[in-house]
Every structure is written in structure tokens, then in C-alpha cells.
UniProtKB/TrEMBL annotation:
MF-aspect GO terms: aminopeptidase activity; metallopeptidase activity; zinc ion binding
Cofactor(s), by name: Zn(2+)
Alphabetized InterPro entries for the sequence: Peptidase_M18 (IPR001948), Peptidase_M18_dom2 (IPR023358)
EC number annotated for this UniProt entry: 3.4.11.-
GO biological process: proteolysis
UniProt entry keywords in alphabetical sequence: Aminopeptidase, Hydrolase, Metal-binding, Metalloprotease, Protease, Zinc
Protein name: M18 family aminopeptidase
Similarity comment: family membership: Belongs to the peptidase M18 family.
CDD domains in alphabetical order: M18_DAP
Provenance organism: Marinobacter persicus
This protein's GO CC annotations: cytoplasm
PANTHER family: ASPARTYL AMINOPEPTIDASE (PTHR28570:SF3)
Amino acid sequence: MEHTDFNNDLIEFLDGSPTPWHAVNTMKSRLDAAGFQQLDERDNWSLEQGQGYYVIRNGSSIIAFRSGKKSPVEAGIRMVGAHTDSPCLKVKPNPEIRRKGFFQLGVEVYGGVLLNPWFDRDLSLAGRVTVLDEEGQVKDTLVNFKKPVAIIPSLAIHLDREANSNRTVNAQTDLPPVMMQVPETDTTSFADLLKQQVASECGLTAEKVLGYELGFYDAQGASLVGLREEFLASARLDNLLSCYIGLQSLLKASGDEPALLVCNDHEEVGSMSAEGAQGPFLGNVLERWCGDDKARVIARSMMISADNAHGIHPNYMDRHDENHGPILNQGPVIKINHNQRYATNSRSAALYRHISDELGLPHQSVVVRSDMGCGSTIGPLTAGTLGVTTLDIGVPQFAMHSIRELIGTQDGFTLYRVLKAFMERPDVA
């Protein structure tokens, strides 16, 4: 895969993955096409050497692995981790709001959303819907309206003269998107609209909507940006970019060594769920793969937690340590925090630098300012749960947690090349 092909395919992946459920479904399709076999957690497993497998939990988290030609007890497992969720606005269970003939939906803020960029954007809606079908069966289905169906209009500056200096966003009152205008006598429910969408998109007649997990997203697709197209702008780069890089690395690796990709949901809200990184999902899969030898396998293994990093912003350079300001298009960023907000240690960082240097590829390091707080990733959670040596790394980006984020077009491809080499490497511990 070449640099241009990588970015074009990344754009297709991002546009096809507006929610964690869609992202997992997209990865499932690509794994199926590559000959991977789906495993069901309810069944007995009979794993063969040299085969690819994947497991899905809740439809929003996925673990894919190649069993390799060597026993994981002897070779260890090369693991890459990422997360499928992104900050967004999720629809409430009883969302209908009618004011002056405008039909709006109440929303709940999911994760640490940068709220101001959500105003005046063309918004669409997607997620998972659970229905009762004509035969009385409970079924899950994915929906994606795709076209712009809502907007959150800004208040005009004439009505808020301090908008450019002192405007705040109230998550309860300022964010309900406007979906349509309706007469005063209208009794349309959101469930009615969902049944229509399920019928038209999925060909499924729903007698009743039993539940849903739906989020608004930016209807504008990913695109190359810049006079020389040095940048790629998109929603959900944090962290679908890492999901894509990890998937491509697993698919393109030789398959000789045992290798695994885990993409967890719920990282943006703490990872404490059945399918989150603080939950048992990865441990359960490793126990079924490795049996009583799991502890020995972990001792020979390594995890690379891939989650984007803050690139140094030319308008806000004072927000970075002067010796640790990652530059877009100058390589992936090794993330270091001695208070264990990142799981990187000198050993795991050294292995990454060594592989990257062997390939002649750039890399950077970041430490946050000592007077500022530090975010975290699934890295420390996975390291603490499994006891596996872990590295935190990420592609540098701008506008993290905005509705539209920005990366350099070189860095994702660079990280892919290193992770592919990592998955092919005979010694990682």
C-alpha cells in the first residue's frame, strides 16, 4: 500500500463509520474479505495455527487476531489497541421538543466534546436501533440517515453582543438540534421517524421501536486540505484513524507471528463497561486463545496503544512544553507521562524507536507541560489489567474532540508501516 492509496482508503473508512457500530461493521466486512473467521463468545472455539479470527462484543467493540505459525507461548503476541468511540451528541430516550412549530431532539453530551464547532454544521444521524419486527422477534439494526437532517443554529451576534468574547454553551438548553417544522397539531414521535428509516434503509418492518443508541455527526465527509494537500480533515479522527491503522497493519502483516488488534468502545467516557478497556473483553479472548498459559504469553507480549496526540498549534505554542511540541507530518508521537497517564516506559519506547529507525521513518516524543493536566488512553488500563508491557503512541492532530479534526497526510502512513513491522517482528519482549 502506498501513501496516496492509504489516505484515499482512510477517507472511505472514515465516511463509512459514523458510529462505533458502523466502524465495527466496516472492519468486519474487511476482515471477512481477507478470510478471517468470526468467533461467537457463546460457542466453543477450535483455533488453528496460521488462521485469522475476530470477535465482536455489543456490536461496538472488536478483537481481531492472527494465530500465527508459532505458539503464542513461545513467541508472545504483538498487540495493537485503539478505540471506536468519539465525543458526540447522543439522542435522549424521550427526545421530542416542540417549540413554535420547530421539531427538535434533546441530546446528551457524550465524552469531552468541544461544543462550539457543532453550531451551524449540517448534521446527520446514525447508530443502532432495536425493534420488534412483524414476527414478534427482537432485532438490532444499524441506521444511517447520511443526508443532513438537522442543524444547531447559532444565536445571531446582534442578540448576543459578547458572543466573541464571553459566549458559553449550556448543554441542556443550547444544543437541541432543529430537525424540521411541524404544525401545532402534529403528534409525530421520534420512534415514528425511526420506523420509517428502518423500513426504507433496512427493508425491515418494525412494529415497535424498543430502544436505540443514536448520535448526531457531521454530514461533511473527510477530505484532503491545504494548498499542497498536506492535511486530512474529518470527524472522528480520534480515534478511528488508529482503528484503521491497526486494521491495515494486521491485514497486511505476514501472519507468521501471533498478532492482535483490539478496538474498544467507551474510551471517551472512562472505558468501564463490558466492552471497554477496563472490562474483561480482551482478557476473556486471551484466556480462550492461550488457556492456562496466558500469564506466560503476556510475559512475552507487548501492547501498542494507538491514540492521537496534540500537535503543536502555531497560534497556541505556549500550551506545549518547549522541548516537546509534536509537528504534523514529522512522525508519530511517543506519549510519555511518569504519573502513568500513559503506559510508555523506556523499554517499550526503545523498541518502537528501534523499529522506526530501521525503517528510516521519523518519530517524535511528547510530555505535557508540568503545569497542565494530561489526558489518558486505553494504554494504562490495558497494562494494569493484563500486566503487559505497553507503549502509548499517536498521530499528532489539531482540534481534538472537535466535530472536525485535522491530521497530516504523512503520519498515519508512517505509523502503519511501523506497526506492520511490529506485528511481523519475531522478538517483542
